[in-house]
Design brief:
seven-stranded mixed β-sheet, 18 strands, flat
Length: 492
């Protein structure tokens, strides 16, 4: 592309953004059109405006049936899996060009062509979060979906019981649930439910000819126990869905019903009283909430609350009711659990009753320093964790923990970042830099608690001090700030 063509393409892109009419498809068109020297600013903007006036803003839906449609009417998305796979493979190597876009529109229509391109562009992120295979997703539904490691762990709570996955979205939880027993996935959004059906059918997760999609509530009684319904989807209002009393429920209320995320269950959709009514009608239930969500004492005392982290980041709070408490690990009603899951789906659990404990407090770092997993802190179990493993605090439960003597056991290593202290002292910048240069070390990671230090800025300043990696800890005791350098326990 010549310099003049590049400038023309840049001006056109700026004008489109200024008119707030840019979509992913149009961005690809602008990027590619300059190479063919066919782009003209005013013509392109006029064309895009015309498309925007005639194009639906959401997932393609038929106005009468509210279902995904193609040139010949409503169709199952599974029929187009090969098309999206081909587009996803192509987009990983180069942007999709205008010729590809126009061919898709000619073969499948405007609506499905736009959907295929969007789904194909999300496959790399979907595979990382949801697992291998083709996933039918939207940007919002992918963001809200449960990571595959967490979903697989939660599915073990249900064992082989028939489960109703309410507010199922695109099936992030439904797919693992379908591998262990009968499943009914329910949502009121027919477009997302079409994606759920395609995701369940992909890779043989269930037989497509057994798929049921209906606006009515699920029938009760023996109809749900028919062995052919290994997994099915139902388009219905979850508050009116009939659930047999011996079935389990997994429900993920919408935390963005008012367009902004909230941690207050009374603002969820369905409303919290409706969620509790559904819970009480089932044999057992698992309710997915935001990590910071608070519950009234009457609910907390009869339920078990579990905070689940993945790679050290808390992903959700699950509230367990009824028989599920008997099946989950250490899930006593009234108690809290912290569950830490690694990238390869290995999980370790710590459970205790919340509340303050009397702990030993060090005046400075001991032989070992600990930063408990985020799930432990979110569950309010830092003090219980420290007491059960003979650890001391440095500045209360919000700070780092420490110990002397024997190295920590395997549970502590799996549920916290642990380092063997090789130096501790002042945390002023000049002293730290001098000490690191003397030891020819640099901070590979910086952990900060209780101070206003910026780890990213410190990393830049201290990176050139040496070539031996260490972990730098900046924290507080009851009377002062401190810095400490640690190495992994495997090093001598």
């Amino acid at each position: 592309m010549g310099r003049r063509s590049r400038r023309s393409a840049a001006r056109t892109l700026a004008l489109i953004i200024r008119h707030r009419r840019l979509r992913w498809f149009d961005l690809q068109l602008v990027r590619s059109a300059g190479a063919a020297k066919t782009i003209q600013s005013t013509t392109t903007i006029r064309r895009i405006k015309h498309r925007q006036q005639s194009r639906p803003s959401n997932i393609p839906l038929a106005a009468e049936t509210n279902s995904l449609t193609g040139p010949n009417g409503p169709v199952p998305l599974g029929d187009y899996a090969s098309v999206v796979r081909e587009l996803a493979d192509q987009s990983r190597h180069e942007p999709l060009g205008p010729a590809t876009m126009l061919d898709l529109r000619r073969r499948y229509g405007e609506q499905l062509a736009t959907l295929f391109v969007s789904v194909a562009s999300l496959q790399t992120k979907a595979n990382k979060k949801l697992g291998a295979g083709l996933w039918w997703v939207t940007p919002k539904s992918l963001q809200q979906a449960t990571p595959w490691q967490v979903a697989r762990y939660k599915s073990q709570w249900m064992q082989d019981r028939h489960v109703f996955d309410l507010c199922c979205g695109i099936g992030g939880d439904a797919v693992p649930l379908s591998t262990r027993g009968p499943l009914t996935a329910v949502d009121c959004d027919r477009a997302l439910l079409s994606m759920t059906a395609a995701n369940l059918a992909s890779e043989g997760r269930f037989a497509e000819n057994h798929l049921q999609t209906t606006r009515s509530a699920a029938p009760g009684g023996e109809a749900l126990r028919d062995p052919q319904y290994t997994a099915r989807v139902l388009c219905a209002d979850v508050t009116s869905t009939q659930i047999p009393s011996d079935c389990f429920v997994h429900i993920d209320p919408d935390r963005r019903a008012a367009q902004t995320r909230t941690t207050r269950p009374d603002q969820y959709q369905p409303a919290w009283p409706e969620v509790l009514r559904i819970v009480d009608q089932s044999a057992g239930a698992a309710v997915k909430l935001a990590p910071a969500a608070q519950l009234e004492d009457s609910v907390s005392q009869r339920a078990h609350r579990a905070w689940i982290s993945l790679q050290g980041s808390v992903r959700e709070q699950s509230v367990l009711f009824g028989e599920i408490c008997q099946r989950a690990q250490d899930a006593r009603p009234g108690a809290h659990s912290a569950i830490a899951i690694s990238t390869d789906s290995r999980a370790v659990c710590f459970s205790a009753n919340p509340g303050a404990r009397t702990l030993e407090q060090f005046s400075g770092p001991g032989e070992y320093l600990y930063d408990p997993d985020a799930a432990i802190r979110a569950a309010g179990l830092t003090e219980a964790f420290a007491l059960s493993h003979n650890l001391a605090t440095l500045a209360g439960p919000a700070g780092f923990l420490s110990s002397n003597g024997a190295p920590p056991d395997s549970i502590v290593r799996q549920m916290s970042v642990v380092g063997r202290v090789i130096w501790s002292g002042t945390c002023d910048d000049r002293g730290l830099r001098r000490e690191l240069r003397t030891r020819k070390m640099f901070p590979q990671a910086i952990k900060v608690r209780g101070t206003d230090h910026d780890p990213a800025k410190m990393m830049k300043r201290l990176r050139e001090c040496g070539d031996r990696p260490i972990t730098l800890w900046i924290g507080r005791t009851s009377s002062r700030r401190f810095a400490a350098m640690t190495q992994p326990l495997t090093e001598t």
